[in-house]
Amino acid sequence: xxxxxxxxxxxxxxxxxxxxxxxxxxxxxxxxxxxxxxxxxxxxxxxxxxxxxxxxxxxxxxxxxxxxxxxxxxxxxxxxxxxxxxxxxxxxxxxxxxxxxxxxxxxxxxxxxxxxxxxxxxxxxxxxxxxxxxxxxxxxxxxxxxxxxxxxxxxxxxxxxxxxxxxxxxxxxxxxxxxxxxxxxxxxxxxxxxxxxxxxxxxxxxxxxxxxxxxxxxxxxxxxxxxxxx
Length: 230
Fold this sequence. Notes:
The protein is an alpha/beta fold and 230 residues long. Helices cover 28% and strands 31% of the residues.
């Protein structure tokens, strides 16, 4: 593997992978085991998928429809992950997975990977890890015969055809994972007093931040980043 790049992007989300393609000679450092964890781990389906500009983003969107990841306006965010991994391979995104950035010093980045510490240099290092000072969200999948009622900070919306709905819990940026899970459990308990038939099916394994309306829009912004000076 090369040790010097024009650009290094920390955080292998959809924007970063698009930006790597747009800028060329780039390395994307991602702590999870797959690209696009910003939407998959957060179980965030997003909205407004038709508002795309870059042809590579349109290509990805059309592939999601062809593979039935998007059906009738419904999106399964986790099912996008293997399709996005194939997209990254086709577009030769240079990904370093299961790797955490441990130190940034000028144009030097130290990374802890599965095989130990590595140091890379770049003309520029762009840290795309989430800003924890704003609001963030925890999403879960629930079963209910009909759409459960929401309240301030708690929203339910259709996610998959049938009786499965997304539960979205708004949280302060400083909330820990343990606090978020406790608040989610309390939200489910309070809702189940009015909807005893509601069942929690699945919880996202990370937060999402709503910086982009959806994963493909984030990819689209990344693909257009070079022309926008990013």
